[in-house]
Design goal:
There is one protein chain. The strands form 2 sheets. The chain has a 9-stranded mixed β-sheet, with helices on both faces. Strands 9-10 form a two-stranded antiparallel ribbon. α2 packs parallel to α4. With 253 residues, the protein is an alpha/beta fold. The chain has 6 helices and 11 strands. It has one domain: Survival protein SurE-like phosphatase/nucleotidase (Stationary-phase Survival Protein Sure Homolog, Chain: A, 3-Layer(aba) Sandwich), CATH 3.40.1210. The protein is globular and about 65 Å long. 24% of the residues lie in helices and 25% in strands. Bound molecules: manganese (II) ion (MN). The site of manganese (II) ion (MN) has 7 residues, from β5.
């Protein structure tokens, strides 16, 4: 029987996680290990300078006072006694596309799973304003995808980043990560005591995203599936200048 770990970055009480629990019940031995509160946009952070408390919310259901990456790490290394066969992170309220992949805790959980040797790790996200029906469809599609991919899973060191549009569709496009967009404006406000605060705004939309990207697929009303690798070396042939030898010294006399 396949062991399936479900997690997220919206917290253990998030409706999207419940959608995953319903979709994956019956597909294997399901564990839920998720942050006890929302930890969106915490990236791949792990907690190293304080202990991690854990609350049991039922059988195979644990809330961790930590990040999504903490949850996957603890599950793989301790609670499950080894990496599960499948890790699914989501269903996140908000797309994870383009530069979101670096900020997202949802995506980070899938990345951590791939690092821990899980051969079938998925991040699943819907638009920020998507309703519960959309999250349910996304979760069921993830379940079907896991069943179809079989025991071999994905290539080692990779995970799948799935984004599902609000309108029901059967169309899926295998995409590449979209172009990174600059962040939105920083908004300046005043608190009730007159002190300034700063609030990072949403980035503007990309006017016409390339069709083969995650954004392009979603703009066309398709689901987007990107196979993401942990390897981050630039694939091109750009060469740095010779960094060794005379004329390049680390210290100046
Ligand atoms: Mn989130």
């Amino acid at each position: 029987m396949r062991r399936i770990l479900l997690t997220n970055d919206d917290g253990i009480h998030a409706p999207g996680l419940e959608c995953l629990a319903q979709a994956f019940a019956g597909l294997g031995e399901v564990w839920v290990v998720a942050p006890h509160v929302e930890r969106s946009a915490c990236g791949r952070a792990v907690t190293l300078n304080r202990p991690l408390r854990v609350q049991e919310h039922g059988p195979h259901r644990l809330a961790v006072e930590g990040t999504p990456a903490d949850c996957v790490l603890l599950a793989c290394r301790h609670f499950l006694g080894g990496p599960p066969d499948v890790v699914v992170s989501g269903v996140n309220q908000g797309y994870n596309i383009g530069e979101d992949l670096d900020y997202s805790g949802t995506v980070a959980a899938a990345a951590e799973a791939a690092l821990q040797g899980v051969r079938l790790a998925l991040a699943v996200s819907v638009r920020f304003d998507a309703d519960g029906a959309c999250a349910g469809r996304a979760a069921r599609f993830a379940g079907q995808l896991v069943s179809r991919l079989g025991p071999g899973g994905l290539p080692a060191g990779t995970f799948l980043n799935l984004n599902v549009p609000p309108e029901p569709t059967l169309r899926v496009r295998q995409t590449r990560q979209g172009n990174p967009l600059p962040p939105g404006d920083v908004h300046l406000g005043r608190d009730p005591r007159g002190r300034p605060y700063y609030w990072i705004g949403n980035r503007p939309d990309e006017p016409s995203p390339p069709a083969d990207t995650d954004r392009g697929a979603l703009a066309a009303g398709c689901m987007s599936a990107t196979l993401v690798t942990l390897e981050r070396t630039h694939p091109g042939d750009f060469r740095l200048p010779d960094l060794s030898g005379e004329g390049f010294t680390a210290e100046v006399e």
